[in-house]
């Protein structure tokens, strides 16, 4: 007879048509629980009142178009006395249900980005009116139960799997595929804890405030901030030793491929990091070591040894789980779900490899033919050598990154900045469509080995001519200036003579065919007026950003001591506490300074200060600021291209672009940052190594499938190709 302290079966509850993916204990008066399933439904189960055991389905809810992966229950309040149920699914949406109707009260679509399939992986209740969600799009969002997204959090560099809220109801913890646990306080990622395992699947905050974390190595780890519960010095050292002994394969990890012979030595660790969780690679003897910066401890912690990093031998095999393979395919089984690795050697039997892959990942045997044929198709004509970077996913049929693939449209290429057609000499229209394998579900072309043999036309980078902000409506600008002048403080108000001079200057610089030249008096007035109070100066800054494109203004304001004064003034306007309009216009002015030789010299000499202050604005939630920031980085990348000795400057460009991509959402800003990355690394092996050490490849992978606009996906794939 079983001991009374052991658990035994109470009941089995049929109901869902497919596997159950999430459960949550109910806080409703009826008690019970809620289940969600791959059959796209959520069901509420209440205890049987007539029996001592068993549950009865009391409510079934539908609203998702793909399987439901997570659920949370929001406690009753005055507005919703029976509480609410929130569900997240692989259709990228969150549905909020009540117990009074089977369809959603609210549908939240913030985790759906055009061109991506980013499923919602986890939900966590904040209060009876708010909850958090996390997604494969590497973002965390805070929602009102009525559907308003009130805040977005970025820090993770890969899928986010789990969330849990601290007892204070505001701070929380998250885990994901980037090997990390991240602790969020006051809306910011306050600490990053890296684990010696790839997937950190789940977490929960315990009643005492400690954090329990479960990972793919089968170990549950508990972290605490209370001194009395901190592990012994011996156990802490053992954990750090385990972390330092982890092996990180650049081809399957997040550090990219590297050249050990060109990496810096241990002295590189003498410089402190600038953000928690920042990674840095060094060469120690014949080994490459990865370190992570800990803000709380103020030191670099070793997080592992990088293996298989040298790209000297292009025929080097791929290391996976301590073994070498000819190919390691990345397979996305569930359209945005966690990716799986399919290792394969040319000498292996494809059917046996497919069988082992399905069995290891607990996948349905019905996929055996699909996987085996996928292997056969994508290893045709290959002998021992490196794995192809990508091909068609055998489960979804969707195309992924193929090095060397490009827009096959003949004759014209889209200008990546204007969208207009651009003539490509030597091309001609054939009127034919490239050969491909039709996707049986979408009808679109899928992988074709012939695509690998075609040459690439890269119209995106390196981009060495500057990108400027030239569009303007002089009439509206001056009308606003005149309006604000009327309400300006007495000591700043301009008389009619000064206003007329500014108007003449604006008309001169706005008309490229104007025979007039800006006068020294007009430029002096512009400079003085640009120091108006911050709440009314923006139309003057708009004139300034147009004026610096003119050679005469560029020479006077950007040369000599005046240049330093201009730079300091614009940096002051770009303060993170400043006004967004002024921040944007200051960034645009810096971008336009690149149009003249004096401006370029000034910005090169002030590069560190300008890019550092610009990087501080990445967290400002403003599309125009993000586009201007991206353009500034791009212009710096263009002027640094072909200068291999400027590695420190290129490192800053890469760092700013990489950090900006963690938070920027606007596709035009993303595109310009991608072009900046491509321009920085093109033709410079040292810059490529720096980009790989920053994990740029894994960071930008999510943009490879963007098709709206197409230039984002195309440019992303070309950058990834450059970093192979």
UniProtKB/TrEMBL annotation:
Residue ranges annotated for the PFU domain, each copy included: 292-389
GO biological process, one term: ubiquitin recycling
Spans through the membrane: none
Annotated segments matching region Disordered: 250-280
One term of GO molecular function: ubiquitin binding
PROSITE patterns: PFU, PUL, WD_REPEATS_2, WD_REPEATS_REGION
Composition skew (Basic and acidic residues), residue ranges: 251-280
Subcellular location: Cytoplasm
Ranges for the WD repeats: 153-185
Keyword terms: Cytoplasm, Repeat, WD repeat
Main location: cytoplasm
InterPro entries assigned: ARM-like, PFU, PFU_sf, PUL_dom, WD40/YVTN_repeat-like_dom_sf, WD40_repeat_dom_sf, WD40_rpt
Annotated PUL domain residues: 459-722
GO CC, any one term: cytoplasm
Pfam families, sorted: PFU, PUL, WD40
Recorded family membership: Belongs to the WD repeat PLAP family.
PANTHER family xref list: PHOSPHOLIPASE A-2-ACTIVATING PROTEIN (PTHR19849)
Protein name: Phospholipase A2 activating protein
Organism name: Astyanax mexicanus (Blind cave fish)
């Amino acid at each position: 007879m079983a001991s009374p302290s052991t658990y035994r079966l109470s009941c089995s509850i049929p109901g869902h048509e497919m596997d159950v993916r999430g459960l949550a204990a109910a806080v409703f008066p009826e008690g019970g629980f809620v289940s969600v399933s791959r059959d796209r439904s959520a069901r509420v189960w209440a205890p049987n009142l007539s029996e001592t055991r068993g549950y009865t389905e009391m409510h079934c809810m539908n609203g998702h178009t793909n399987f439901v992966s997570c659920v949370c229950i929001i406690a009753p309040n005055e507005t919703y006395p029976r509480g609410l149920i929130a569900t997240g699914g692989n259709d990228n949406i969150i549905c909020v249900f009540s117990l009074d109707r089977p369809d959603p009260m609210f549908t939240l679509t913030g985790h759906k980005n055009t061109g991506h399939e980013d499923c919602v992986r986890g939900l966590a209740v904040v209060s009876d009116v708010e909850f958090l969600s996390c997604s494969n799009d590497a973002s965390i969002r805070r929602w009102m139960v009525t559907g308003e997204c009130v805040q977005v959090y970025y820090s993770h560099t890969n899928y986010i799997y789990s969330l849990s809220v601290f007892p204070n109801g505001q701070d929380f913890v998250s885990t994901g595929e980037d090997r990390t646990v991240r602790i969020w306080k006051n809306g910011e990622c306050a600490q990053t804890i890296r684990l010696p395992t790839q997937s950190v699947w789940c977490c929960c905050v315990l009643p005492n405030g400690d954090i329990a974390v479960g990972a793919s190595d089968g170990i549950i780890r508990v972290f605490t901030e209370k001194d009395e519960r901190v592990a012994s010095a011996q156990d802490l050292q053992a954990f750090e030793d385990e972390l330092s002994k982890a092996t990180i394969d650049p081809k399957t990890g997040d550090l990219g491929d590297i050249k050990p012979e060109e990496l810096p030595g241990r002295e590189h660790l003498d410089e402190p990091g600038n953000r928690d969780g920042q990674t840095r690679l060094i060469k120690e003897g014949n080994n490459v070591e990865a370190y992570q910066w800990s803000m709380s401890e103020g030191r670099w912690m070793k997080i592992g040894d990088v293996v298989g990093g040298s790209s000297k031998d292009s025929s080097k095999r791929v290391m996976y789980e301590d073994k070498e393979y000819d190919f390691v395919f990345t397979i996305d089984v569930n359209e945005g779900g966690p990716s799986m690795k399919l290792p394969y050697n040319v000498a292996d039997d494809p059917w046996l490899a497919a069988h082992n892959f399905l069995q290891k990942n607990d996948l349905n045997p019905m996929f055996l033919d699909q996987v085996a044929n996928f292997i056969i198709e994508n290893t045709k004509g290959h002998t021992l050598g490196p794995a192809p970077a990508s091909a068609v996913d055998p489960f979804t049929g969707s195309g992924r990154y193929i090095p060397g693939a490009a827009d096959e449209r003949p004759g014209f290429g889209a200008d990546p900045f204007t969208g207009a057609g651009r003539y490509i000499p030597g091309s001609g229209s054939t009127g034919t469509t490239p050969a491909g394998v039709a996707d049986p579900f979408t009808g679109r072309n899928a992988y074709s080995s012939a695509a690998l043999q075609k040459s690439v036309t890269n119209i995106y980078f390196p981009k060495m001519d500057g990108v400027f902000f030239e569009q303007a409506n002089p009439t509206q600008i001056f009308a606003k200036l005149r309006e604000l002048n009327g309400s300006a403080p007495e000591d700043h108000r301009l008389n009619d003579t000064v206003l007329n001079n500014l108007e003449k200057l604006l008309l001169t610089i706005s008309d490229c065919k104007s025979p007039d030249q800006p006068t020294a008096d007009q430029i002096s007035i512009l400079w003085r007026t640009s120091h108006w109070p911050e709440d009314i100066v923006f139309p003057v800054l708009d004139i300034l950003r147009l004026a610096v494109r003119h050679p005469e203004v560029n020479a006077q304001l950007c040369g000599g001591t005046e240049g330093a004064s201009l730079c300091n003034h614009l940096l002051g306007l770009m303060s993170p506490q400043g006004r967004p309009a002024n921040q944007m216009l200051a960034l645009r002015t810096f971008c336009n300074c690149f149009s003249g030789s004096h401006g370029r010299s000034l910005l090169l000499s002030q590069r560190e200060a300008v890019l550092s202050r610009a990087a501080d604005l990445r967290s400002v939630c403003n599309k125009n600021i993000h586009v201007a920031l991206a353009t500034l980085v791009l212009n710096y990348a263009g002027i640094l291209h072909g200068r291999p000795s400027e590695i420190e400057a290129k490192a800053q460009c890469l760092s700013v672009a990489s950090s900006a991509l963690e938070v920027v959402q606007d596709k035009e800003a993303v595109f310009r940052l991608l072009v900046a990355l491509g321009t920085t690394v093109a033709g410079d092996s040292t810059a490529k190594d720096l980009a790989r050490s920053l994990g740029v490849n894994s960071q930008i992978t999510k943009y490879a499938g963007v098709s709206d606009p197409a230039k984002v996906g195309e440019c992303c794939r070309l950058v990834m190709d450059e970093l192979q």
